[in-house]
Amino acid sequence: MISIVLLLIGFVILVYGASMMVDGASSLAKRLDIPVIVIGLTIVAFGTSAPELFVNVFASMQGRTEITLGNVIGSNLFNVLVIVGISSIITPLAVKRNTTWIEIPLSLAAALLVWICVNDAVLDNRNFSEISRIDGIVFLFFFTIFMVYNYYLSKKGDEQSDFEIGEYTLLRSIVMIIAGFAGLAGGGHLIVESSVELARLAGLTERVIGLTIVSVGTSLPELATSVVAARKGNVDLAIGNVVGSNIFNIFFILGISAVIHPVPLNSGASGDILINILAGIFLFLFIFTGKGRHIERFEGIFLLCIYVSYMGYVLYAM
């Protein structure tokens, strides 16, 4: 019970810290006359994925690689199967051309790249399989390309921010940034420690804890953003948030994690990675079923059923 309470407290601190850090950093950037587009592509994008990042950084530093990989793959599964599923049930999601032909395929390519990099024993006839530090650097290189693409796309479309930036005093902005990072660090550390203890007490592997509880908790910002966007009819944000987060999770978060500590392929993780690829394929195919490029309500229900079924299988297999 204590481990569960500490885990929940860690999630609250983590999410609140991310929000505070984003607000403070955005206000400071605005005071420095940094373009709103740049703020959105860097600070805000970082903020929504900060929970996954800080949990993975602490897990990697402690060598808890099952949590590292489980959190990223679990978050991506939750994003596509649950968040897109729920959002499309609220309102059918129309998908923009760029999202259809560039961002969703890139997200699927990222999932495939994880499988390629982590299957050394299969593809390179080695006696071990891992995402090495070199693989992590490759991921970070692709992430840089993705950020340049986003910046170019935003400038080309002359898009304006769809989020508000609070204006605070210089001192308050700095204090919020420091407090936010402290919350992220403290919450991330608390989540990793309590997750490991919870896995030990419940007889679960760290992979299962990372794939389920940890990944769901760290994906709460994306869930809240997409559900609110869907309810307001802002379907571009609802699905764009998910696809961007999946790319961010693999190229940036898993990349940094692997650079800190190589991520070996543990028992059961191959299935998780393949299901992640399958989810990306379904997302791409569903866009072309029915009329126009839409994800319909029945397809959202199907995605939710896949998630529930696979998580049930993972827990049953334990």
Would you give an account of this structure?
With 318 residues, this protein is mainly alpha-helical. 81% of the residues lie in helices and 3% in strands. The strands form two sheets. Strands 1-4 form a two-stranded antiparallel ribbon. A two-stranded antiparallel sheet has the order 2-3. α2 packs antiparallel against α6 and α7 (170-202) packs antiparallel against α8. The longest helix has 33 residues, at 170-202.
- CATH superfamily heading: NCX, central ion-binding region
On the 0 to 100 scale, the average pLDDT is: 86
Strand content: under 5%
Report the radius of gyration as a whole number of Å: 19 Å
How would the blueprint of this fold be written?
Elements lengths: L1 H30 L4 H26 L3 H26 L2 E2 L2 H22 L1 H4 L6 E2 L1 H25 L12 H33 L3 H13 L1 H12 L3 H26 L2 E2 L4 H18 L7 E2 L1 H21 L1
